[in-house]
Design brief:
about 35% helix, Arc Repressor Mutant, subunit A, two-stranded antiparallel sheet, 2 domains, seven-stranded mixed β-sheet, globular, 9 strands, alpha+beta, about 240 residues
Length: about 240
């Protein structure tokens, strides 16, 4: 998450729990940054005119006056794709049609460049099987994995295989695949010099390197999936 997105997210988080406070430590863990970075972000938001103040004491933290703030009307590409995945997870329920209309409204309200990026990202998310199920969830997915496609950077990961062995790899993220509630990051693995799918709950560590890469096209025939029908996320 870049700084601009994080600033919007901090304001929205404070609005959501207002008038209760959020501590710098809690915000740092939530956005995977240091407490010093959070303090600098809060200072920048205050200087920009946001009504944020510090509530001192054992249970203190930062608060915002929600009566004098408006929620952000712009969505990031990652947020739009997340909504598309959520809509897909509704299956064929009674609210699916309304949710699809709401998603289109969100994309229509986005800046043109962000909407274009969102459509490009959604084309790189694939689902295996008929419907998403919530029976299995991958908890605590690192933020750098969640934003792997939009960063266009080489990631250095520690990956635990089915036998518990951990290998270190440099990978170029290509897309995502969901299967029965489990998510896989598909990437060009420089160790294996081939396309590989990494279960996100087996990624033990991740570091975003400074090396930028040109996104490769992810072709379904490269995945060599022996079962199930791979389908793309509905276009946004």
């Amino acid at each position: 998450m870049n700084r601009t997105d994080r600033l919007y997210a901090i304001v929205e988080e404070l609005r959501a729990v207002s008038p209760r406070p959020r501590s710098a430590t809690w915000l740092a863990e939530r956005f995977e940054v240091s407490t010093r970075t959070v303090e600098r972000d809060i200072s920048a938001l205050q200087q920009a005119g946001n009504p944020i103040w510090a509530d001192v004491g054992r249970n203190g933290g930062y608060c915002i006056d929600r009566e004098h703030t408006l929620p952000p009307v712009n969505f990031t590409a990652d947020e739009a794709v997340a909504l598309a995945v959520a809509v897909e997870g509704m299956g064929h329920g009674p609210f699916r049609s309304a949710a699809q209309v709401a998603l289109r409204k969100v994309v229509a309200a986005m800046h043109e460049d962000d909407a274009h990026t969102a459509r490009a990202l959604s084309a790189r998310v694939h689902l295996l099987g008929s419907e998403i199920t919530s029976e299995i969830t991958s908890e605590n997915t690192p933020g750098l994995i969640s934003s792997a496609l939009s960063s266009n950077r080489v990631l250095r990961i520690g990956y635990r295989d089915r036998d518990g062995e951990i290998s270190r790899r440099d990978i170029e993220p290509l897309g995502y695949i969901e299967n029965a509630g489990r998510w896989y990051l598909v990437a060009w693995c420089r160790l294996r010099t081939a396309v590989r799918a990494f279960r996100t709950d087996r990624i033990e560590s991740v570091v975003q390197t400074a090396e930028a890469v040109q996104p490769r096209d992810l072709r379904v025939d490269e995945l060599q999936i022996p079962y199930g029908e791979l389908r793309s996320l509905d276009s946004i």
